[in-house]
Write a structure and sequence with these properties.
Layout (H helix, E strand, L loop, with lengths): L2 H15 L7 E4 L4 H15 L10 E6 L6 H20 L4 E6 L7 H7 L11 H22 L2 E4 L8 H10 L7 E3 L6 E4 L7 H10 L8 H11 L32 H8 L5 H15 L21 H18 L6 H25 L1
Parallel strand pairs: 1-2, 1-4, 2-3, 4-6
Antiparallel strand pairs: 5-6
Helix pairs in contact: 1-2, 2-7, 4-12, 8-9, 9-10, 10-11
């Protein structure tokens, strides 16, 4: 990115930061290239504003779905820690926040416990529970405390045709910097880098030292390994699934192929082959009618959840893979809760069987 364009974007960020309303900013940070580019600019702007004028508080919001590939998860948490420490040392009004799904909404609780079928594009139950709800709970809490907030997102028109259409829809006037959030009342969206091209993002990251002491070459290396893009902070249903060509959940079955995980395997993460095989198996399992109950959980007709024996098979395979890759893929608490759900489902089935005889 040419220096003049960078300066123009940073001046715009500064102008809005110093505006008198002082409503808090929430910067969506996934650890990928676009959110890193945006946060570096915000960080740089703040560091060059006199301390007495830093009156607006900024939250750096990240989402931990508990399902990111282990190497991506480690990188994200390491980066968040660096951001927090650097902001504190520079006396910047920045606080990092990592949101997670509710204990009863984790991917494996729903899939293995309740038997939800592996997600597809028609029944994409995972996005709402793992990403939208956790992020929106945090945002709503800040709206309740402050009246309104501004979400700073690294969305860019150059990401994809879908993203370009979405930005054009919400920014009908090209002179506008803010748009009303589609579903959160009193939340406004500010996308400072929406007109930045992909090659300009990379140029900026290559030429601009990371202000919190991070190493952008590590980020670039991960993109090269995965042949990928980033999965942004998701706060509504307009964002496409991330498994196709982005860093996302390693079990994403919404897409036909997870090219990101395939890229990691090809790049030398040999153990990830087990994760990829498990994901592909879940993809196939979903459409096998023999693996599903004949009724839905609410009693309606149609293909229902995975049968109990199938859920047990999924857990058994997952635990074997967990040992092979030497990474925690499912927690003890999740396993305990899953077994409680199985017992409850078995009792319910038994009662129904008794009632019909």
């Amino acid at each position: 990115m040419r220096r003049g364009k960078t300066k123009e974007i940073e001046n715009n960020i500064k102008r809005h930061y110093l505006s008198p309303d002082e409503k808090p900013w929430i910067v969506g940070f996934s650890g990928g290239k676009d959110s890193t580019c945006l946060l570096q600019m915000v960080f740089h702007v703040l560091a060059n504003i006199p301390p007495k004028k830093r009156r607006r508080f900024i939250y750096v919001l990240s989402s931990d779905t508990l399902m990111e590939p282990p190497n991506i998860s480690r990188y994200l948490f390491k980066t968040i820690e660096q951001i927090e420490k650097s902001a504190h040392s520079l006396n910047l009004p920045i606080q990092t926040e990592v949101v997670k799904p509710n204990p009863n909404d984790t991917f494996f609780i729903r899939l293995i416990g309740y038997g939800y079928p592996s997600p597809n594009k028609w029944f994409r139950w995972c996005t709402d529970r793992l990403k939208i709800r956790p992020a929106n709970r945090f945002i709503k809490n800040k709206i309740s405390a402050h009246g309104n907030v501004v979400l700073l997102l690294g969305s860019r028109k150059d990401e994809s045709s879908e993203r370009a259409k979405s930005i054009k829809k919400h920014y009908s006037n090209t002179e506008e910097d803010f748009s009303q959030h589609t579903s959160l009342t009193n939340a406004y969206v500010f996308s400072p880098i929406k007109d930045v091209k992909t090659d300009e993002v990379w140029t900026y990251l290559l030429q601009t030292p990371c202000p919190w002491g991070g190493d952008n070459s590590e980020l670039i290396s991960m993109y090269k390994d995965a042949n990928s893009g980033e999965c942004p902070l998701i706060v509504d249903n307009s964002t496409p699934p991330c498994g196709n060509s982005r860093f996302g959940c390693w079990v994403c079955t919404v897409v036909e192929r997870d090219r990101s995980m395939e890229g990691f395997v090809e790049a030398g993460y040999e153990n990830y082959e087990y994760l990829l095989e498990f994901r592909n198996w879940l993809h196939e399992l979903r459409d096998n009618e023999r693996m599903r109950e004949k009724k839905k959980r609410n009693g309606a007709s149609g293909l229902g959840p995975f049968k109990i024996e199938v859920r047990k098979d999924i857990l058994e395979r997952l635990l074997k893979i967990q040992k092979l890759v030497d990474e925690e893929l499912i927690s003890r608490k999740e396993i305990e809760e899953i077994k409680k759900i199985w017992i409850a489902d078995s009792l319910l089935t038994s009662r129904k069987s008794t009632a019909t005889t």
